[in-house]
Write a structure and sequence with these properties.
single chain, mainly alpha, 84% helix, 0% strand
Length: 132
């Protein structure tokens, strides 16, 4: 019954949760990283959309999601096996977090879009490397 109420309240959010749960079941580490990148880019684009439309609650929710994903990506870095790449990605994630948090108090969607574009390039490279 609670599930039906939640679905009726926000069907899109319920679908997203089900979709993410389905894609994470049985996924290995690299597949999870790819999923995090996809979710991150989606959250940033949604934050830009919400900013343009003056939807503060949605913007806040998406900024929180993006920030949490950036922390998760950084926490998963393996400094022992590849300190140089891990250090570079750590600085990139930290910079992206600062950009997102600073943009969250403003009314300009551009920083969210710029961050999404940059991180989408990394996501594409990650996806290509996984496919090889």
């Amino acid at each position: 019954m609670a599930y039906a109420r939640a679905f009726a309240h926000d069907a899109a959010a319920t679908y997203r949760r089900i979709d993410v749960a389905g894609r994470t079941t049985g996924a290995d580490g690299p597949a999870l990283v790819q999923l995090l990148y996809e979710e991150l880019v989606s959250a940033l684009r949604a934050a830009a959309f919400a900013t343009e439309r003056g939807k503060g609650a949605l913007k806040s929710e998406r900024v929180t999601r993006a920030t949490a994903i950036l922390f998760a990506l950084e926490a998963g870095l393996d400094f022992a096996s590849n300190p140089e790449l891990s250090g570079t990605l750590s600085r990139l994630y930290g910079g992206a977090r600062r950009t997102v948090v600073e943009a969250s108090i403003g009314h300009d969607p551009t920083p969210f879009r710029d961050a999404a574009t940059m991180l989408e390039e990394i996501a594409t490279a990650w996806r290509t490397a996984r496919a090889a």
